[in-house]
Design the sequence.
């Protein structure tokens, strides 16, 4: 059964039954080793690269982990620039995003998120004269979620390069201190996600939380920050997932509300806004916004809902804030000087070039003969294979199982005890082309999704906290194709037939 799955793996990877069985544990060594520094463009700054890890990645893992991190300067000073990345331990190469995926990394400093990264790898680069204050007594914690899309173990470092101005530099005496104000549509949740269903929202766009009447269920709006003292906003940029179009930052004073900045997604993806092949716009270096005590700042995220559904999406927009400051432009007196076009912090990334969607050798499930009748039956998922109806399978096991109208089929994830999660997510037939960052998509005309079948710590995991799921009983006659959102090389089908 497993042998045909080899053709799903990217070049250079192999899938063997032995490696599937010999799962390695995640060994997070709380270590960040500084690499050799190089000259920086910022006057008086040193450019230093740190490596967090090594992090052992289990086959197919998609879990959140936290660990202490000692990767920071051992002298006081100011951090003015922060550039994140992910590299392999074996050769220092940057893994392809469709193989190993930096879902997120958050650098918690003194218990609060100060720096963050997603697969778009936006660079935080403050204007000259501003910096995050650092002391060697600060405690750093790494919160990361590295997603392995294939059943092959790996080992990586999370790297980050900083520009650092030590207190011994003459430039340090001129620095202005900023802090990070964490802005997220879901507040400070450890796993702050929401779903964007296909054709939801208005005119093909879905804005969260505006278009979700149950976003906060009567609770305080988690996407808002009430300013505690007169301050100046110095910089911001949004973090979105595939399908994301832009993140908006808003301010309300009394009965007036204006937009402060729109962080647009610049897609290099030929298929459009459907993948991680993207850069996000950040504010220009000259952007300064004066906010007053009592102002309410909020964030929203907008996704394209015409092409596909986007499960477990994010909309985060951290702000670099100079406290106790009256500098900057009053957004209510000069809104056009505030809501200006942004700039991307980097260009196209080489690791995002495998788009997928090319012709492949998988069958069109609609042309296959009927499989067994399984009304109320169970399809087990084990070793990254759907026991019945798996498109990689051949012979009888590859035939779509039959379900009568009004009946359901149960899927059971046998891999769940190994902390491997799977989904059954509808994709448009035939759903049989090559895997990449833009294929397959949750783009079926009739949508369904199981959630990530598996278990994990409550509140800090993508797991659905269950290992079974039943297909909807109201599906009409036809062949339904699906894939696993966690491991998109997995494809399957079932058939509703009277």
Sequence:
């Amino acid at each position: 059964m497993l042998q045909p799955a080899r053709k799903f793996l990217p070049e250079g990877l192999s899938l063997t039954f032995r490696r599937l069985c010999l799962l390695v544990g995640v060994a997070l060594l709380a270590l960040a080793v500084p690499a050799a520094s190089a000259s920086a463009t910022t006057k008086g700054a040193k450019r230093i690269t740190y490596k967090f890890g090594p992090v052992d990645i289990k086959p197919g893992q998609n879990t959140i982990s936290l660990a202490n991190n000692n990767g920071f300067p051992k002298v006081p000073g100011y951090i003015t620039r922060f550039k994140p990345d992910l590299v392999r331990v074996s050769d220092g190469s940057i893994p392809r995003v469709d193989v190993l995926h930096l879902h997120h990394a958050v650098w918690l400093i003194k218990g609060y998120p100060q720096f963050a990264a997603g697969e778009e790898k936006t660079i935080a680069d403050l204007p000259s004269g501003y910096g995050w204050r650092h002391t060697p007594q600060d405690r750093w914690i790494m919160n990361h979620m590295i997603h392995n899309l294939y059943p092959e173990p790996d080992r990586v470092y999370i790297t980050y390069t900083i520009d650092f101005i030590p207190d011994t530099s003459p430039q340090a005496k001129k620095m202005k201190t900023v802090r990070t104000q964490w802005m997220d549509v879901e507040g400070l949740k450890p796993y702050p996600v929401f779903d964007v269903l296909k054709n939801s929202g208005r005119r093909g766009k879905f804005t969260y939380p505006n278009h979700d009447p149950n976003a906060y269920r009567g609770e305080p709006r988690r996407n808002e920050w009430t300013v505690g003292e007169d301050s100046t906003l110095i910089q911001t940029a949004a973090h979105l997932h595939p399908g994301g179009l832009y993140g908006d930052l808003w301010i309300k004073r009394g009965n007036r509300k204006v937009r402060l900045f729109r962080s647009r997604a610049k897609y290099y993806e030929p298929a459009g806004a459907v993948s991680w092949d993207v850069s996000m716009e950040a504010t220009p270096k000259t952007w300064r916004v004066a906010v007053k005590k009592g102002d309410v700042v909020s964030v929203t995220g907008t996704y394209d809902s015409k092409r596909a559904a986007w499960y477990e999406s994010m909309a985060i927009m951290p702000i670099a804030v100079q406290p106790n400051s009256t500098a900057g432009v009053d957004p209510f007196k000069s809104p056009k000087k505030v809501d200006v076009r942004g700039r991307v912090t980097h260009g196209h990334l080489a690791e995002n070039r495998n788009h997928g969607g090319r012709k492949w050798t998988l069958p069109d499930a609609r042309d296959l003969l009927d499989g067994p009748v399984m009304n109320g039956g169970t399809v087990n998922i084990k070793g990254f294979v759907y026991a019945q109806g798996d498109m990689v399978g051949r012979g009888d096991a590859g035939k779509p199982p039959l379900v009568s109208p009004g009946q359901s089929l149960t899927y059971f994830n046998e891999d769940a005890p190994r902390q491997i999660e799977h989904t059954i997510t509808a994709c448009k037939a035939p759903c049989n082309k090559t895997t990449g960052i833009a294929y397959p998509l949750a783009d079926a005309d009739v949508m369904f999704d199981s959630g990530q079948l598996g278990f994990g710590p409550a509140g800090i995991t993508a797991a659905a906290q269950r290992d079974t799921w039943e297909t909807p009983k109201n599906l009409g006659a036809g062949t339904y194709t699906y894939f696993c959102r966690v491991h998109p090389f997995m494809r399957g089908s079932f058939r509703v037939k009277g």
